[in-house]
Amino acid sequence: MKSRTPAKVILFGEHAVVYGEPAIAMAIDLYSIVSVEKSENLLIDNSPPDRKYHSFILTAYEKSGYPDPVHIMVKSSFSPSSGLGSSASVTVGTVSTLLGMQGRWSKEVIARISFETEYAVQGRASPTDTSTVTSGGAIIISRGNVENLLWSVEKNGITWNIGKIDIKPIELIVANSGIRGSTAHLVSKVSSFVTKNKFGMDIIREIGEISKNAIEPLMDGDIEKIGSLMVKNNKLLNILGVGHEATTRIIDSVSSFSYGAKITGAGGGGSVIILPREREKVIERLEYLRIKYYNVKMDREGVSFIK
Ligand code: MEV
């Protein structure tokens, strides 16, 4: 059996969402494919599993409750550690396929098991990435009430409600700095920033306000407003310490040709999302800087089976 799972971008609210503030994320049309076959021994991509390299897949297998050994094979059209949810995509694909093989397939169950997997491997985490790539479309994650509730996920006294939001289509450019950021490391970096600085939680709450203020412009397609909120969100992410000279260079170099640009995901390198005003000029700049980029659109389907 085979599952196809999208990548994701966080439009607003990464890091703050770990503390229960709202975030808005969107599944995008870059995919990973996980296929699973019955096998004599447990194998991942033709090798016996090694927790050091296959921690997400192995934990997903253990948590999916499949009773027999299998061979799990993974293909991905986007880079790992690039801020696009590669580990979430592969985790969700593995859980989806294994649940399908047991006749227990449900998006809500996939989202829960996949979040538990990420949490076990990564330490502190929110369900943003796993729920977005499971559901597809654009979603809001919030401790408060959300319209169009898909499911709720609980951990350590925080309940995150995950709801669909009907945003106007946006075509973004995702630029990959080529610097790999470790989500676990960046999440713990933010955690020490928040503990050591009196104003740390103020920054987290300000990011939460930006996510709330972004809902209407996203639903109305108010591109100017969305762009200016992206710029504000990016400043706050830099204050939290998850910026990197490589992403700052990309953002600065396209700023005169875009409505807004920001780090997406954990940061520390990784990727930038750009809302282009003059697409050709943005692309020219990225090519001049030899930056790998993707023109992305929303994926509406989320995880699904393929032949
Ligand atoms: C990573 O894509 C998003 C973070 O907010 C971590 C998380 O939500 O688990 C940085």
Layout: helices, strands, pairs:
Layout: E1 2-12, E2 23-38, E3 43-44, H1 55-64, E4 70-76, H2 86-101, H3 107-122, H4 128-135, E5 138-142, E6 149-155, E7 158-165, E8 172-176, H5 183-196, H6 200-220, H7 223-240, H8 245-254, E9 258-264, E10 271-276, H9 279-288, E11 292-296, E12 304-306
Parallel strand pairs: 3-4
Antiparallel strand pairs: 1-2, 1-12, 2-4, 2-5, 5-7, 6-7, 8-10, 8-11, 9-10
Bound molecules: (R)-mevalonate.
(R)-mevalonate (MEV) binds next to helix 4 and helix 5.
Which regions contain 5 or more consecutive residues with pLDDT less than 50? none
Major sheet summary line:
8 strands, mixed
Q: Quickly give the structural class.
A: alpha+beta
Number of domains: 2
Tell me the CATH architecture of the largest domain: 2-Layer Sandwich
Query: How many H/I helical runs?
Result: 9
CATH class of the largest domain: Alpha Beta
Query: What small molecules accompany the polymer chains?
Result: (R)-mevalonate
Order of helices and strands: EEEHEHHHEEEEHHHHEEHEE
Alpha carbon gap, first and last residue: 8 Å
Give helix % range.
Answer: 40-55%
Instruction: Report the principal-axis shape.
Output: globular
Provide the descriptors you would attach to this structure in a database record:
single chain; 307 residues; alpha+beta; Ribosomal Protein S5, domain 2; Alpha-Beta Plaits; 2 domains; 8-stranded mixed β-sheet; 4-stranded antiparallel β-sheet; globular; binds (R)-mevalonate
